[in-house]
Amino acid sequence: MKKVVVITSGGDAPGMNAALYGIVKKATEENIEVYGAKCGYIGIIEENFVPLTIENTFPYLRQGGTILETIRFPAFQEKEVQRTAVEIMEKHDFDALIVIGGDGSYKGAAKLSQFYFPVIAIPATIDNDIFGTENSLGFSTAVSNATAVIDKLSTTAASHGHIFVVEVMGRHSGNIAKKVGKAVGADMTIIPEKEFTTEEVIESLDLSKKQDKKYSMIVTAEGAISCLELTKNIERNSKYKVHPLILGHIQRGGDPACEDRILGIEFGEVAIKLLKKKKYGIALRVYGGKIDALPLSEYL
Amino acid sequence: MKKVVVITSGGDAPGMNAALYGIVKKATEENIEVYGAKCGYIGIIEENFVPLTIENTFPYLRQGGTILETIRFPAFQEKEVQRTAVEIMEKHDFDALIVIGGDGSYKGAAKLSQFYFPVIAIPATIDNDIFGTENSLGFSTAVSNATAVIDKLSTTAASHGHIFVVEVMGRHSGNIAKKVGKAVGADMTIIPEKEFTTEEVIESLDLSKKQDKKYSMIVTAEGAISCLELTKNIERNSKYKVHPLILGHIQRGGDPACEDRILGIEFGEVAIKLLKKKKYGIALRVYGGKIDALPLSEYL
Amino acid sequence: MKKVVVITSGGDAPGMNAALYGIVKKATEENIEVYGAKCGYIGIIEENFVPLTIENTFPYLRQGGTILETIRFPAFQEKEVQRTAVEIMEKHDFDALIVIGGDGSYKGAAKLSQFYFPVIAIPATIDNDIFGTENSLGFSTAVSNATAVIDKLSTTAASHGHIFVVEVMGRHSGNIAKKVGKAVGADMTIIPEKEFTTEEVIESLDLSKKQDKKYSMIVTAEGAISCLELTKNIERNSKYKVHPLILGHIQRGGDPACEDRILGIEFGEVAIKLLKKKKYGIALRVYGGKIDALPLSEYL
Amino acid sequence: MKKVVVITSGGDAPGMNAALYGIVKKATEENIEVYGAKCGYIGIIEENFVPLTIENTFPYLRQGGTILETIRFPAFQEKEVQRTAVEIMEKHDFDALIVIGGDGSYKGAAKLSQFYFPVIAIPATIDNDIFGTENSLGFSTAVSNATAVIDKLSTTAASHGHIFVVEVMGRHSGNIAKKVGKAVGADMTIIPEKEFTTEEVIESLDLSKKQDKKYSMIVTAEGAISCLELTKNIERNSKYKVHPLILGHIQRGGDPACEDRILGIEFGEVAIKLLKKKKYGIALRVYGGKIDALPLSEYL
């Protein structure tokens, strides 16, 4: 193991830069050279490689986004393109590829692995919806961002006795909503995984009033029901006046929370350690609170 | 001057609680008792008075919203209701009223002043659109909140080369937009006070690309053009793909920025000092960077 | 289970108020009344009980410190005082006691449990040094606070090429230091559990220079070596000029990080669930990333 | 005016990078090229110039420290060295120099101006102690940083009824201390400009107890009395137990507060506007809340 290439792929997630630093730090100790391909898989095809060093990754350790940038590249689903990617990596003497990304990126990583090219994947998606892992880069930050914004609403809400319905990210998963709803003491949290009725929502608002909570807060994942539709439903079926708010891109952005920095660095270090031991064709994950790995074939 | 009553009125603004603390602090030194009427002018009519002390205001000095709460009370525009308010304040031996609020609240304060009741107004509105003052409570916080949120977008935007159009508060005033646009290095800032064309916006995006800014950011005040309309206009007239975001209530909420805490306490202290000197029928303001006062009659 | 009493004991830890809210929330659902004894164990002896409700705990959910306050009470180590505490709790018809605190508080809880009084303990200490648990309330916040402060130093450090030695809390444990050192990319992290030499520290600084890191950062736990002594040792044995900084109380204070809020509420909910099932004489903990419990007798 | 050179000099101050962006932004509009000399005046002597562009300044607009870095350079007080600097700037066809810094840097700027070389100075020092200006880059950030840290102490302090004595920066000036003391509701603020006695401090603590403030907070500027000495004096002359804390480098560091970003950009834009109008030999300042200028000869 002399030379590895890394990509960040799919949506950017806070903690990606920390992972890059963790990879480079451990690799430097092990005398492994690290290169980054710019903009995800497309950077491999375009042979757009840049050297990654302590000097050029350390300053970004605590910065959100990804210094390697990322662009969608649908053509990568074609077998021929994948084969080309492997050939290019071999041409450049890369001994392994580390892919930092979410669901889609994992699939690509699994495909490349089928060409017997050494690949390790690091989970990074704010939705935390990758199969098999308890945590992924960006999730803690998204929860923390959303919570911080709702906290800001709360002082206003308490001053006026307002009811807020806040929509957080999560098309198929209630992971962010559940954590955020817990953290802000939401009266009800609505997730795609569980049915609900408008009556239940209104009952939770009734209870909130009865308990003298000063303001009420419903958290909904975008995949369950939109903020605006829920607002309409509540206002039609009760006397309540509701203030809707869609958090949107605010959740994904910003500098990584402390957990995502630590997790990112640790993922990076473990990736290099495993490559050094000739362990690949795997996806890192958190399980039982600790980092271990699953075979990439699980993600085909 | 033995006993004064305070209200917070209109929309809540971060720094209102700091002003309450400033009033109580100075009043305590001057042996003046302070009461708050709950929920704005309506609290006077309903004789809903609570004593304000160092003990019950100090802990909220750095908290947003208003511990006195605030409710809209349109009936207060009637002369009879105003007269009743004055009679109730006299019945309770209040020697003066301090009103903390925005435009509408100032008008009410000016009306009460016409009954020869001593009134002082303190400017508090995140829009900073009260005539005559350079600054009002909540404005610094709103600018700082909006800037912080846009900063969060920026890391994501830079990773993907995105264009964001962000809508900030300001129905009639571009004050927030101008400061925020400056602070985030916006490519263009659109305000109600100045006409603009879609072509100009697109040119600013062209320039941004040319200057290799990695991402582009347009800030618009809600009163100039809505985020969604502007997005549509840009996408129809150019090849650009735009991400719209409405900041909404996030701007108004949250704990006061340092400036609003300091300004709130200072407004409160000055209000008591002036009352002590039998100066009233006035509205405090910031002028030339310092606190002075205008006659309330300016706001009739 | 009709009526329980709660104390927060020992040093305050961010997340204690969230735990109070979690307890009250779940207890309200289960028709269990909750009281707080003020200032820790002493509040039981002094029969200083206050009712805890959604109304008076919800607003503090996201606030640091403890609304129940806490005072050191060494007399509680005497068996007679413990017996009195149990008698008082029985006199007031309390069916169980929930203790939120650290090492010392756990010992007290275990003692009371020996009188066959139902007790559940919730781990809360920023040092995260309670036997058997992976996490305790306040730890995430302390790590996050320390990291945020060191981040602030970093921009200055990078502008001047400075070397900082930062001392974090941890008399017997390197838990905070290890996480913080990881999060900030420290050149070396010194902990009480592991010996080190001044030469190793200087070598880490040499390496940092060689890697063009722009600034260097050593993190030390107070129990390993003090900031000032380490500074002296480095400056005596090398040409380096070092800037020492002791973080002190800054780490412990402030509002809880998102994780401590969520963990606090979950601990509180689980405590009530277990009491309801007549499970007591136990200490909650995090194990394998999940909440479970150990017998309190482990802490005698 | 075709080509200007900029330095950041003396201690770094948050907002310096924003000023660089403001300069470059305006200069680009005016077709003026901008270069930075690295590390302050020494960068001129060493002819260490780098081009500054929108591309390489925009990403740092919201970052603390200075991307141009800064090193102390005592030799610059010699007339010969100053003359050399002017010759080098002329050799490189620089039409003007913009100096961003504090007291010492202003003196250097004034000296260069005596060689009839066009110079404009921009005030940047967290102490805000430059003659003639109401505000300087870094001051708002320092106040905000110190306030935020003391806020963190406050929750702990309130939980235990503690007394804190906090030492803020300010060797000759109480500017930071006054603002911070106001913002945190300090019981007393001690500054170098005003004598005080230990008795007064103790009386303020007595009053704090009497007013049921839950905790007490004294703020002292380092130039008035050190934290530790004051602690000793209080504890010797009263029954109070005091917790001292020195804020140190935390105040100076970190990303600029919104005000310093805005002020930095505005200073930068104004500097270019004035150079364009052939106004130089001046120092920008804030006066009456607005930016204007004083002759540099005031700082000789």
From TrEMBL, chains A, B, C, D:
Its main location: cytoplasm. It catalyses: beta-D-fructose 6-phosphate + ATP = beta-D-fructose 1,6-bisphosphate + ADP + H(+). Residues 3-275 form the Phosphofructokinase domain. GO terms for cellular component: 6-phosphofructokinase complex. Belongs to the phosphofructokinase type A (PFKA) family. Catalyzes the phosphorylation of D-fructose 6-phosphate to fructose 1,6-bisphosphate by ATP, the first committing step of glycolysis. Its cofactor is Mg(2+). GO terms for biological process: canonical glycolysis; fructose 1,6-bisphosphate metabolic process; fructose 6-phosphate metabolic process. NCBIfam families: PRK03202.1 (NF002872). One of its GO terms (molecular function) is 6-phosphofructokinase activity. It is found in: Cytoplasm. SUPFAM superfamilies: Phosphofructokinase. This is 6-phosphofructokinase. Keywords: ATP-binding, Cytoplasm, Glycolysis, Kinase, Magnesium, Metal-binding, Nucleotide-binding, Transferase. Pathway: Carbohydrate degradation; glycolysis; D-glyceraldehyde 3-phosphate and glycerone phosphate from D-glucose: step 3/4. Its EC number is 2.7.1.11. It holds the Pfam family PFK.
